[in-house]
Each structure stands twice: as C-alpha cells, then as structure tokens.
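[Target chain]
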Amino acid sequence: MSTIQRRKKMKHLDLFTDLAPFYNLKELVNVSSNRYQEEGAYRFERNREIVSISYSRFKTEVEALSTYIYSLGINKANLAVIGENSYEWIVSYFATVYSGNVIVPLDRDLTAEETRNLIVDSSSEILFYSDTYEDIIYYLKESCPSVKYFIPFSSYLELIEKGLELIASGVTAALEVDIDKDSLAAIIYTSGTTGKPKGVMLSHNNLASNTVSCRHFVKVRGNSMMVLPMHHSFGFTTCVLYYLYTGSELCINRSLKRIKDDFLRYKPYNVFMVPLIVESVYRKIWDGATEKGKDKLLRTMIPISNGLRKIGIDLRKILFKSVVAEFGGNFEYIITGGAPINDEYIKGLCDLGIDTVNGYGITECSPVVSVNRLGNNKIGSAGPVYTCCVVKIADPDEDGLGEILVKGDNVMLGYYNNPTATAEAFEDGWFKTGDIGYLDKDNFIYITGRKKSMIVLSNGKNIFPEELEGLIVRELPYVAEALVYSKDSVLTAEVYIEPEKVEEFASQLDEDIRKMNANLVPYKRILKTVRRDIEFEKTTTKKIKR
C-alpha cells in the first residue's frame, strides 16, 4: 500500500497530531521535561508513603543514574532489569538507554534458571533488581559471568546522590552521548504461548514511532494507573512511553493483589489492561451489585441509558455513579490488548459508563499495530491500523482470511543473536506475525486465530481454536477458561469452571456443549470435553500456554 493510499484510509479517523514527534528515548525525556516541567509524572508508594515525582525531577534522576552507570565504564553494553512495577524500574530503564546502552527487561515471573538463561544469552553487564529477588542473586552471581554489577533498587537513592555529585563535579559524558534513532534500545524476550523465548531487538525509532502513533489514536484525560507488567512491551510502550509523551501522571500499582486499594488511592481516569483483568473488573462489578441487591436495578437502567445515548443523551456518569465509585470515582476509559477478549465485556463495560476499546499488537512491532478509538469503535475488531505501519493479508482465502503481515517504522530490527529466526520472520521485507485475520474496507483488523495453533482436519478444513474457545466462554458463562485442540483426530475442549460454580454447573457441561454444537457447522463441533480442576498455565500477559 502506498503512502497516499494509507493516508486516504486514515482520512475518516481525525487523528490527534497536537504533539511534535520524537525519534529516540533520550529526546523523549528531554522534551517531556521541558514541556511539562513541574507537573506530576509519577505517583507511587515508597516506605509506606505516597511519593510524587515531577517531569523535571524525573529527568534529573535519569541523568544522575545514567551518569553513575557511565562512570562504572559501562558503555554500549546490555543491562538487564527485573522486578515488580516500580519507579526505580522505570528510571533504571531510561538511565540505561539515555547513556547509549541497551536495556533488557526480564520477566518478573521467570524461574531462577530461566532468568539466568536470558542474562547469559544477552551478555548483560549490569542487573538492576528489586530486593524481592535477593534470594536468587547469589545463584545469579555464581552463574552469570558477564554481569559486572548487581544493583538492588534499595540502593537507588544513594546512587542518585552519587550521580548528582558526579554531574556537579563536571562529569557529563553520559549526558552528551548522541543517540542514533535506528540504534538498538531494548532486547525484549518473548513470552510466547509456544517455543523458546527469542530476544526481540527494538530500536529507539521503533519505540518512538509506536508511541507517537498511540497518541494519534488515543487521547486520554486525567491520570492513569499502571497495572500491566513493565517488562512487557505492551505495558511499557502504552503506559510508560505514552504517558511520558502526553504529560499525564502515571500511578504505579506494584501488585494486582493491591489493585482495588490502589484504584481508591489514586482514583485513575483511564487504565491499559489485558483482557483477563478487564474480565475480572467486569465480574467484580456485577458480583458487587448482586451482593448489595442492586443488580436488578442496574439491568433496568442499562437499556434506558442505551436508548438515551442513541438520541445523543449520555447520562451514564449519573446513572452508574455508584459503579464508578468502587474504582475511585473517576474511572472512565479502558484500553485493552495482548490477548483476545470477549465482545460481551467491552459492550458491558461501555453500558456502565466505562468506555472500553480493544487493540492488537505483537512484541516484534513495538508492540501495537492497531487500536479502536472512542467514537469509532467497531466491537469485534482490533481497530484501524496505526499510522507508523501498513498491514497486508498474505494469500487471503475466499473470505479474505490470511496471515497478517506488517511493515513500518515500528517493526523490529530482528532477533538477538538469531539470524535464522530473523530470516524466517520476514517475507520480502514484511514481518510475518503468525496471526490470522482480515482487513475490512476501513482498514480495521479482525483477528481469528494464530497460525501455529490452527487445526487442520483430515478433510482439509482449517479450524482456529481461539474462535471456539471464545464461543464456549461466551455461551457458557460458568466456564472461566477453555482450550480447544485435536487429540486422536477428535476435536476436544478442555475447560476450567470457576470453583464456586462447579457444584451447580459441572453436570450440565456436556449437554450445553451439545446445544452449542447444534449451531455450528459439522466440522467445528466439539466431540469431547475434559474438565480440569486448576487454571491453565499462562504467560505473563495472561494468555494460556498451548
């Protein structure tokens, strides 16, 4: 698709272009500090006190830690970071790339051995870590010879002071490092549902272009709360980079166990979430309403509210004030991605005054490829294609379905130390996502499944298990999770029923599946069901590992 064709497709989108683009992460820190100065950048808890950090203070601390790193003789090296979400984690990331080094964010849920493998694979020379990982540090010191310095977050304030002293004494080499926009910024190891993790190499411009495109499509008001893991590209780009670029305050949730308390503490207006958290929010709303005896009232008010919205009268903030109050009183907007989501949750939350839109991305694309927008939200789609890239469908069938290919400024440099995998990932300059879907006339993406998980039947028919899994969860609300696969040529559904619903519904599972099958073409019908007692193992973005 030519640039002209792409612009024509974007005409109906009314993009937000009020902020000048940036091209590397050092520039982002500097421009944001100059633009927003003493406005609040981050709010978080430290030593049981709430701390607020301004944009100018953030830049000062990034420069201080960057200078300290440079003083250790660490130059053009890979530096790893691991830990729960924290302000110290963010500063460690930016201090690394600010001084021309490369950051390697590590999955906080990895085992000690898996952590070691990625540190060794990346040849990281520094490991920044949360004190909660102190128990594996001795093992890592013995088994990671490339690491010269192990730096705990507990030493953060001390190192900032040392960095400030160095700058005051005239040591400014780190601050003067020029960053080429196409230079490597981050190596992010995939947590895919299949296979060995690969190190995705993202340049400064990859991340910058994706952040700028995010602004083109998404404009939020008020503060946000970070609940996504920072080591994952979806969380870091859409929350940390996007909010730094737009001048919003980001409040940091350290653990999902504290999410309810943090909603009430920080009172966010908007939050980026993976579908599993969105679904949890939706269920808690209705469970709470049922417990208080208000569920019938809500069900009565929703159709009235929706009818008024059709004639331009939106009273959701008034009618559903009590719902939003459970989340601090300001909650109005969710952007979700990272995995498929049932349309029921998007529509259900929108009905209650929490507008929810879905997007699509993949780590190799920095990561966002498309997202829906308020006022232009096609429920069921993953939204229109971002401005930083173009998408085409490879070898589409009669329904327009095929593998989604992406080309653009957001597409990775390649896989770290893995030229074979890099070559296999591209076709004539197009990145092969491995996802199957189609584009509509407005350039909105629809995802139907993963190429690797596609089931090919003996009659040549193709089945995307994600389609059936979504159907099972939607049609059988007592089923929390489902996984569809072919075993001995028999299409099988393995399901996990919410524990509190097992006694009531387990006995009707097979009958409900038969009823569901009646509305499916014969080759898509589930012929066997298996009930499991524990949740499926998942990646850190809460996708079931196949």
The radius of gyration is 24 Å.
